[in-house]
Design brief:
It is built from 5 helices and 7 strands; from the N terminus they run H-E-E-E-E-E-H-E-E-H-H-H. With 176 residues, it is of the alpha+beta class. It has one domain. A 4-stranded mixed sheet has the order 1-2-6-7. Strands 3-4-5 form a 3-stranded antiparallel sheet.
Length: 176
């Protein structure tokens, strides 16, 4: 994990706070949640975390997000989302790997010192395969010259706050 984290430091430096995913050399997906430095003291004993995947089809690209909410006793819980663009090969591969991984290491990163302060193991979202398959089907309906993930994500973020996403419920995988 250390070499993976070192390779992500430049990306984490540019991020105010938020989450990103990356796979190590064994194909295990990790989540890195960068916290504002003052919030780190609450993470010393990793708090419960609620998380789920969602799919929001947009005209120019499907937006797949993995929502995280650190469940604490305040009225203002810490919430972040990381996104997957299924036409970006590394992100698509990571999403597929997530579907076959039962446990995911979630690393809390101190935004001030840029160091891992705690790691929690969370279960992989059970709806991953269905979200991926629906996103692929949605992408097939978009003309190649109209696919624009960045525009779709910007429109999605402008329309949906983290507080709103927090009210959404994870879908249940079908029992086909």
């Amino acid at each position: 994990m250390l070499s993976l984290f070192d390779s992500l430091k430049p990306v984490l430096c540019r991020l105010d706070y938020g989450a990103l995913t990356a796979a190590d050399d064994r194909g295990q997906l990790h989540v890195f949640v960068k916290l504002p430095h003052p919030a780190v003291r609450f993470i010393a004993d990793p708090l419960p975390i609620r998380h789920f995947l969602f799919l929001f089809p947009m005209p120019t690209a499907p937006v797949i997000g993995w929502f995280f909410e650190v469940v604490d006793n305040t009225q203002d819980p810490f919430r972040v989302v990381t996104y997957f663009n299924i036409l970006e090969p590394v992100q698509a591969r990571n999403l597929v790997w997530l579907a076959y991984q039962t446990v995911v290491p979630l690393h809390y990163v101190d935004g001030g010192e840029l160091s891992v302060v705690a790691t929690k193991r969370i279960s992989s979202p059970p709806e991953t395969i269905e979200v991926f398959q629906e996103a692929v089907a949605n992408t097939a309906r978009i003309r190649v010259n109209q696919y624009d993930f960045d525009r779709a994500m910007a429109a999605f973020e402008a329309a949906h706050s983290l507080a709103e996403i927090a009210t959404w419920r994870p879908r249940r995988p079908s029992t086909k």
